[in-house]
Amino acid sequence: MTELVDLSGGDIAIAPGWDDLPALDLAGIGTHYAPGAGLEHLRQTIAGIYNCASTENVVVTTGASAGLTSIFAALRQLGNTALIPQCAYPGFSASLRMLGMGASRYTIEDGEFMPPITERPACVVVNSPLNPTGEEIPSATVDGIVRYCARTGAAVVIDSVYDALNSGGSRAGNLFASRVSNTFEVSSLSKSLAMAGWRLGYVISDKKSCEMVARSHYALAMSASLPAQHFARSILHRPDLPMWRGQLAAAIQARRKDVTSRFARFGVACTGGVTPFAWMDLQPLGLTAEVFCRAAARGGVVCVASGNAFTGHASTFIRVNLAAAEEEVFARAMDWIERLFAAVAARRATCEGS
């Protein structure tokens, strides 16, 4: 039986390995809890990447998702609602629901920030590059969010996970620096170092805000994995890390180019920017995401994410993780999708010709 190829999540499976890393000295590391805000030497390394004043501006978390939840919990005193993008990572609303908070969606029209009419929100969530489309936030939108936060007192929460995957740092964070007094940035070592299963993220903010996030995270997860933090620090100090990032980015973009070329003949476009995702609109084939996912489930070959998980306005979209499987396995999944598209296109042509 052919094993199901899961391209629905955010795993990174095609990164060059770290085979030459020395084995972790687990006996020396110990089995105790890590400090609540993270190991000092890892926080120091992250602070250096972001030009933070000190380690007091960094909290290491159990993945970026736990970082987001901890931020929302810390901000709940400001309001019971967060503004999130119209098309957004499902984890935003899931974390808010878990805390008994609501999510209202804002839109961006011709670069202009268009907030919904709502009670004063606790924060505005910015995701750049956007998961799943890869779009980066326009400067005009930044200006609109800055004005909105000045008027309402809302904080800004920046999810820069897929910026860190490529650059190791954040461009979106720099756009808001010094312009909004209450700013939080969350990112991921799980993604940027291709160690998703080790669940490691971090939050950047001012000292007082980081203390609040650290308390929230302690209640949620106590501390991030001790071995994972040691492992991440050893990678972050490697001189060949920039080359490794370049190889990973090149591998993802090579797959994007191949997938785009394969499916262009069916009128299916593949966007995604610098993220590891292909955001595909199946409308030219007359398919919805629901129909495609049902067919894929029956075929038992590939699993992808439905656009409906990200927004109620993407019923014909699917999100495919270009980095979640090794080459042979990924090729098998793409071959199956291409055969399905060809069969649907042929059937449409027959129906239109009759």
Structure overview:
This protein has helices at residues 26-29, 40-49, 63-75, 90-98, 139-152, 161-167, 172-176, 189-192, 207-221, 226-236, 241-264, 289-299, 327-353; strands spanning 5-6, 58-61, 81-85, 102-109, 112-114, 123-127, 155-159, 183-188, 201-204, 270-271, 277-281, 302-303, 305-306, 317-321. Helices cover 44% and strands 16% of the residues. Strands 2-9-8-7-6-3-4-5 form an 8-stranded mixed β-sheet, with helices on both faces. A hairpin with a 5-residue loop joins strand 10 and strand 11. The protein is an alpha/beta fold. The longest helix is centred in the C-terminal third of the chain and has 27 residues, at 327-353. The protein has 13 helices and 14 strands.
Helix content: 40-55%
Total DSSP E strands: 14
Order of helices and strands: EHHEHEHEEEHEHHEHEHHHEEHEEEH
The backbone outline, from C-alpha atoms, is globular
Structural class based on helices, strands and sheet pairing: alpha/beta
- Biggest pleated sheet: 8 strands, mixed
Amino-to-carboxy terminus distance = 38 Å
Number of helices: 13
Topology:
Layout: E1 5-6, H1 26-29, H2 40-49, E2 58-61, H3 63-75, E3 81-85, H4 90-98, E4 102-109, E5 112-114, E6 123-127, H5 139-152, E7 155-159, H6 161-167, H7 172-176, E8 183-188, H8 189-192, E9 201-204, H9 207-221, H10 226-236, H11 241-264, E10 270-271, E11 277-281, H12 289-299, E12 302-303, E13 305-306, E14 317-321, H13 327-353
Parallel strand pairs: 1-12, 3-4, 3-6, 6-7, 7-8
Antiparallel strand pairs: 2-9, 4-5, 8-9, 10-11, 11-14, 13-14
